[in-house]
Design brief:
- The chain has a 15-stranded antiparallel sheet that branches. A 3-stranded antiparallel sheet has the order 24-25-26.
- The protein has 2 domains: 200 residues, Beta-galactosidase, Chain A, domain 5 (Distorted Sandwich); 383 residues, Alpha/alpha barrel (Glycosyltransferase).
- The longest helix has 21 residues.
- It is of the alpha+beta class and 600 residues long.
Length: 600
């Protein structure tokens, strides 16, 4: 089976596909990120659905994105010739397309195309038929895929196969389109026009990026990845386009990330606003208001792409999982958890949105007031924490700090933008939370904050203490906490979230290093003026990206492989914000809280 880093991301801002280095599309959900998958070979084998276009012999393969786009170009070289396969996605009205162009560059090459359509996550055989115009149609209930190509296809054992030769200067196009089976059959499309338009749209967007110093290329690719994970219409931003890629190979830490976490989306907003992308930020704010509208007591940590609340989790027993990592899950039971930190992320994101010039919206402030009223009632209760543990609720220190941030952001919003609210009450709550955290969440003997009240161990989320302004980096307790995290969680050059041996998450031991945590450590080095260490760690993290600049959720330093869902928004968000800190562009890590707030 291919490694996770062997995959490339293509997408149309409604859904996405993963294309393997060998030319096989092994993951594709239609029509939306969280729709059922037609290709699920990523979580099983080729019989669960794939679409491969590759040389019919061994080849040397290289690939890259067209600059400033999500258009993938893969070059295959053999002893007989060279071909380029161009892969991209587009959409038109209520239809979605995956398009592939094969171009002969040198000599002659024999090619193979294999298409196995398996709707419902690899469990359903569709009805395949040839249309009068030569296109192939695959129908399963309300879903329909249509394959358009001049290449002659044979249907063998529920697989559409083509063997063809291509010479230098020749081009063969393949278009796979999704539409509703009960609607009129869509007309054929011109791939060349779609390719030109798609390339231009991505490049026009990328041109708005204002740069991030020496790390501009890495930041631009991360921004393009984040854009690909945002829905063009609803504004929802998914955490990743995949489900059940394991955090530990052959383990059970396999979750569905095709949903919109308030935390991830808020941090994405921060990255977009720093990078001159206000339109996308405003679209996200509209999504947020719709998603959280209603009783603040029913606020969820995550929602569907359009703001759906029901994300019931279930297992798919017919899929063996990536490298036998069972179970494969769809839906996410963590949607019912209580995580106090999301109040802080949302409040701060909306404060930053106002500060960077997004138009004011009185309805947004009204919703914030209700959220703060509810937070005032529940901040002192235990929660499930940022890492969505399933081992029971605790008084997580990071959660309390982010509750503090919620009130701090509200105070700044009211004072700076003439918004009405009980500022004095918020100030009292802010001071009370600050004092409690410093008393109950701090280990004086170790000179470090701890994971939760009464705990002995630390948590990488504590690295956010100076980043959100809870304490200034000059406070000795910050340096002490960084030292404790280096001693306890720094392993093989990367930072673990926490020690899984403590049983706090209720799961089996062992996982990779959560990449965002290592980026946070690099940012702390910047704040502590340990610049040489900051650059060294950041550049090591950049070296862990695949050849296309993509990062998964975690990295296994012993297996030297990426693990977890891919590509992961959280990893790319952390990359962007750390790069800005290192380049000292906009100083994101030092502007997130006032001096008054840091004193409680």
């Amino acid at each position: 089976m291919a490694k996770i880093e062997d995959y490339a991301l293509i997408g149309n801002r409604e859904t996405a596909a993963l294309v393997c280095r060998n030319g096989s599309v092994d993951w594709l959900c239609m029509p939306r990120f969280d729709s059922q998958a037609f290709f699920s070979a990523l979580l099983g084998d080729e019989t669960h659905g794939h679409w491969r276009i590759s040389p019919d012999e061994d080849a040397v393969t290289t690939r890259c994105y067209v600059e400033g786009t999500l258009v993938l170009e893969t070059s295959h070289k053999t002893a007989h010739g060279t071909v380029t396969v161009t892969d991209f996605m587009t959409r038109e009205e209520d239809r979605s397309y995956l398009m592939r162009r094969v171009t002969g560059v040198k000599g002659m090459m024999k090619m193979l195309m294999s298409l196995v359509v398996r709707p419902d996550y690899g469990s359903t055989l569709p009805w395949a038929s040839r249309l009068e115009d030569g296109r192939m149609q695959y129908i399963s209930g309300p879903e329909r895929l249509v394959l358009q190509t001049p290449v002659h296809l044979k249907n063998e054992d529920m697989e559409s196969v083509a063997h063809f030769e291509i010479n230098a200067g020749e081009t063969y196009d393949f278009v796979l389109g999704w539409s509703r089976s009960y609607q009129a059959l869509p007309p054929p499309v011109m791939l060349g026009n779609a390719l030109r338009q798609t390339r231009e749209q991505w490049q026009l967007w990328a041109e708005r990026f204002t740069g991030a110093g020496k790390y501009s290329d890495a930041v631009e690719r991360s921004l393009l990845t984040l854009r690909a994970l945002g829905h063009f219409e609803t504004g929802g931003i998914v955490a990743a386009p995949t489900t059940s890629l394991p955090e530990s190979l052959s383990g059970a830490r396999n979750w569905d990330y095709r949903f919109c976490w308030l935390r991830d989306a808020s941090l994405t907003l921060f990255a977009l606003l720093q990078s001159n992308y206000q339109e996308e930020a405003e679209l996200w704010r509209h999504w947020l208001v719709r998603a959280i509208a209603g009783s603040p007591a029913q606020l969820q940590i995550m929602y569907g792409v359009a703001g759906e609340k029901w994300l019931d989790e279930r297992e798919l027993p017919w899929l063996p999982g990536y490298e036998n990592s069972r179970p494969v899950r769809i839906g996410n039971a963590a949607s019912g958890q209580i995580q106090l930190d999301i109040y802080g992320e949302v409040m701060e994101a909306l404060y930053i949105a106002r500060k960077t010039g997004l138009p004011q919206d009185t309805e947004v402030w009204a919703i914030q007031l209700e959220m703060l009223k509810h937070l005032a009632e529940i901040w002192d209760q235990p929660d499930d924490g940022i890492w969505e543990v399933r081992g029971g609720r605790q008084h997580f220190v990071h959660s309390k700090i982010m509750a503090w941030l919620a009130f701090d952001s509200a105070i700044r919003s009211a004072q700076e933008f003439a918004l009405e609210g009980p500022i004095e009450r918020w100030k009292n709550l802010r001071a009370r939370i600050h004092a409690e955290v410093c008393l109950k969440g701090f280990d004086k003997k170790r000179n470090s904050f701890v994971q939760y009240y009464g705990a002995k161990g630390v948590d990488a989320a504590l690295l956010l203490i100076p980043m959100v302004g809870f304490l200034p980096a000059s406070d000795p307790r910050v340096a002490g906490t960084v030292k404790a995290i280096e001693e306890e969680l720094l392993q093989d050059g990367l930072v673990l979230r926490y020690r899984t041996e403590n049983g706090v998450d209720g799961l089996a031991r062992g996982e990779g290093a959560f990449l965002a945590c290592s980026f946070w450590l690099a940012t702390n080095y910047v704040l502590l003026n340990r610049m040489e260490e900051a650059h060294k760690l950041f550049e090591y993290l950049l070296s862990l990206r695949n050849d296309l600049g993509l990062l998964a959720e975690e990295y296994d330093p012993r297996a030297k492989r990426q693990v977890g869902n891919f590509p992961q928004a959280f990893s790319h968000i952390a990359l962007i914000n750390t790069a800005y800190s290192l380049a000292r562009v906009n100083q994101p890590a030092t502007e997130r809280a006032s001096a008054e707030a840091a004193n409680g």
